Amino acid sequence: MTSSRRKAREFSLQMLYMLDITGEKDFRSCLEVYWDTFGQSKDSRPFANQLTQGVLKHLEDIDRAIGSCSHNWKLNRMSYVDRNILRLAVYELLYCPDIPPKVSINEAIEISKRYGDKDSGAFINGILDQVFQQQQKKNKSHKKKKDKTD
Fold first, then answer.
1. The total number of structural domains that make up the chain
2. pLDDT tens digit string along 103-128?
3. Separation of alpha carbons 56 and 109, rounded Å
4. What pTM does this model have?
């Protein structure tokens, strides 16, 4: 059985994919079109919308984080699906402290098994692990600086 959060992540992936492939900039109309067309579960909508809007709001930082960890793979060379699964998970890692990092990473891997190709899971896991490690180093560095100033 798929959780409503998993479904919300999948819906958000589909919206981000639609925005990415069409180059559409008006995400509000995209959300309306998506929900009007597919009429998915109302339980999943708030979280799906939060994820989609959060990714779009922080897209530059998210893409920078992915780019710094995807050696030999530029963002524009990644598949639309892999790129947007990564964006979702990195958004959660960087901006959703209430979601455990392992959950974000595992969810991304599971979603990639359904929507990506046979190599997507390993590719996504490798990049997300590096993003997570970098984030932990930054957090430790900020904590040390804060401890020195206190």
1. 1
2. 999 999 999 999 999 999 999 999 99
3. 21
4. 0.89
Say which residues have a Cβ less than 8 Å from residue 9's Cβ, sequence separation at least 6. Answer: 47, 48, 51, 88, 107, 111
Rounded to an integer, the average pLDDT of 22-37 is 80
- Provide the pLDDT for residue 2: 62
DSSP the chain: ---HHHHHHHHHHHHHHHHHHHT---HHHHHHHHHHHH---TTTHHHHHHHHHHHHHTHHHHHHHHHHH-TT--GGGS-HHHHHHHHHHHHHHHH-TTS-HHHHHHHHHHHHHHHS-TTHHHHHHHHHHHHHHHHHHHHHHHHHHHHHH-
CA atoms within 13 A on the CB side of 144: 6
With contact defined as beta carbons under 8 Å apart, do 69 and 127 qualify? yes
* Whole-angstrom distance, CA of residue 98 vs CA of residue 10: 19
What range does the domain containing 40 cover? 4-149
Residue 1 pLDDT exceeds 50: no
Of 37-41, 43-47, 102-106, 132-136, minimum mean pLDDT range: 37-41
Residue 64 belongs to domain with CATH number: 1.10.940.10
